[in-house]
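Pinned message: reference record for Serine/threonine-protein phosphatase 2A 55 kDa regulatory subunit B
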Amino acid sequence: MNGDDGGEAVASSAGPPPPLEWKFSQVFGERTAGEEVQEVDIISALEFDKTGDHLATGDRGGRVVLFERTDTKEHGGNRRDLERMDYTVSRHPEFRYKTEFQSHEPEFDYLKSLEIEEKINKIRWCQMANNALFLLSTNDKTIKFWKVQEKKVKKISEMNVDPSKAAGNGGVANASVSAGPNNNLANGSYLDQSYNCLSKDASFPPRVISSLRLPVVTSNEISLVAKCRRVYAHAHDYHINSISNNSDGETFISADDLRINLWNLEISNQSFNIVDVKPTNMEDLTEVITSAEFHPTHCNTLAYSSSKGSIRLIDLRQSALCDSHSKIFEEQEAPGSRSFFTEIIASISDIKFAKDGRHILSRDYMTLKLWDVNMDSGPVATFQVHEYLRPKLCDLYENDSIFDKFECCLSGNGQRVATGSYSNLFRVFGCAEGSTEATTLEASKNPTRRQVQTPSRTSRGLSSTITNAVRRAGADSPGVDANGNSFDFTTKLLHLAWHPTENSIACAAANSLYMYYA
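Predicted structure (tokens):
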């Protein structure tokens, strides 16, 4: 931690980094004009692995699609080795389709008369082993542990007969035992010793086969095989909203609306309930769990968010059932600001730990908030994302858009954060000290045609002033955002992921996967 703090001090003394210039990299599954999107093809989960060399997507049809990075392989080594050799990598990150498999199928719970859809809610990468990829995928009820490995396809390339002389086994037999009139006895026995397989004479029949070629097995083709190693089922009464790997590489958690369970990767028929917020009387229920994630380096620490806008940090060393938290992070609402929509828009849809574990990023409907785990008095930074929609909350409530769950992500160095919005837009904010970076990009081949010119970062001292100014701007023109662009509630960018080591973002717009770099 001291090394990280020192690095931050150096960065802050030099001033905030300049805003990034984002460029389009590539797109998978691009739609043609007027093409109708099939429901099962819409991407519902997105995740880079720890190295950034692989990317996984899940869709509403229960499929998992894997992509692998290709630009580093072309130079014969990984990017870190090339940088160590002062090799300038001029090409931007490029990925290619690797494989796909059907992870989940639609099911029916006969005991509860409940249909369980196949939609992939979350994907999490596990540690690689023996050149095989491992990942967890989950739908509403069932988690699966997958192994994806390259298998060599074996084929027989050569037979022991020259194809120009004979074709097939029948040709071999006919050519080998063709006999003259004096070579056959009445009972069909064969007299010529040179043709007897028991003879010491290894000569071949004359004018038939000049040499012996044994069958040769070759394995030129490589096939990727996905195998389900374990199924973790029947542990959640409510819909699973999160899964998260532990840094110990042995355990993971799964969270639904009311409970968080701890699993061992090797044991699929047993889990431990570590958080349970279900009241004795369900009428007393006031909040639910919305997201949960393990600390990136401390295997005993995890955080979970709630529908009331709070984040709780728990320590597994304190007790087996962690109903009491070690810290709680929440922002007190301003007096007189409470309305019918207050609790709805305060509900946190996603949380992410920074790579160093020092900060937590949270996303509610209106804002992104950055929290310091050592300071629970309030967020260290707030980024306005949907403030211009405040006058439209009634309409958003009526068409259920107010319940959309947007994800968030942090850059590997922790200097920037990103999240999605409507009209297939996503926003990137600088969170370094003094940074005013606030960029709006569109999920298209021309991402910068909708640039935000005004900063959307809000410090605690100026929050009310800026909020009121933005609110007035939104109220003047209710059909446009704060930048004068019309917004479309039917096209929303819910899922995005930041490359763990580079300034590269992957985002999902319906059934299309767009990638950008800076």
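Pinned by admin. Summary line: The mean pLDDT is 81.
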